[in-house]
Design a protein that fits this description.
The chain is an all-alpha fold. It has six helices and no strands. The protein binds protoporphyrin IX containing FE.
Length: 147
């Protein structure tokens, strides 16, 4: 099992990085789509159009990418025995924060699709920066493995 995982390790990593990019792209797009939805009144055709777009982004890009990144990442960690290393614990903390942000944002989009407006434009602009900040920290940890 271990030797098979090591044999396919480069392919696991390729898949991990590709779907990580899809996941991040989705997380960058979603707050922007929320901002565009704010221009439309609750119950209007414009709101329905953005709700459909958000739903597609979630089903086609965000949810599958999140699952694939987690599965491939954990498989690589098992193959290499990274679970005892400090950098990996720190990475997992930031990835859990990213996953929590994902879930929270999806919940906000569901509320918006029901006509609620839980977040202002300025809040959406601010929280839209969070995935980028976490991305910088995660990539630095993976490449530098400082501890
Ligand atoms: C979801 C949970 C995740 C787990 C369990 C995980 C785990 C891993 C593991 C074990 C590696 C291999 C490290 C090595 O071979 O030195 C790796 C590589 C990498 N991960 Fe993740 N990761 C996860 C999510 C993410 C996320 C969210 C990002 C970016 C935002 C990310 C970015 C990267 C990058 C850039 C690499 C380096 C690939 C390379 O060596 O060229 N990972 N990850």
């Amino acid at each position: 099992m271990q030797s098979t995982l090591l044999l396919i390790y480069p392919f696991l990593k390729i898949g991990h990085v590709i779907f990580m990019v899809f996941w991040m792209a989705g997380l960058f797009m979603l707050p922007r789509q929320c901002i565009y939805m704010l221009d439309h009144a609750p119950g209007s055709p414009g709101e329905a159009k953005w709700a459909t777009r958000m739903g597609k982004l979630r089903k086609i890009i965000l949810t599958p990418s999140l699952i694939i990144v987690w599965v491939l990442g954990l498989t690589m960690a098992i193959a290499m025995g990274f679970f005892s290393e400090g950098w990996f614990h720190a990475k997992l903390t930031f990835v859990l924060a990213m996953t929590g942000f994902h879930g929270w944002l999806v919940a906000q989009t569901r509320k918006m699709a029901r006509g609620e407006r839980p977040l202002s434009e300025s809040t959406l602009r601010m929280i839209g920066e969070l995935p980028g900040v976490l991305l910088v920290l995660i990539v630095a940890l993976v490449y530098l493995k400082p501890f």
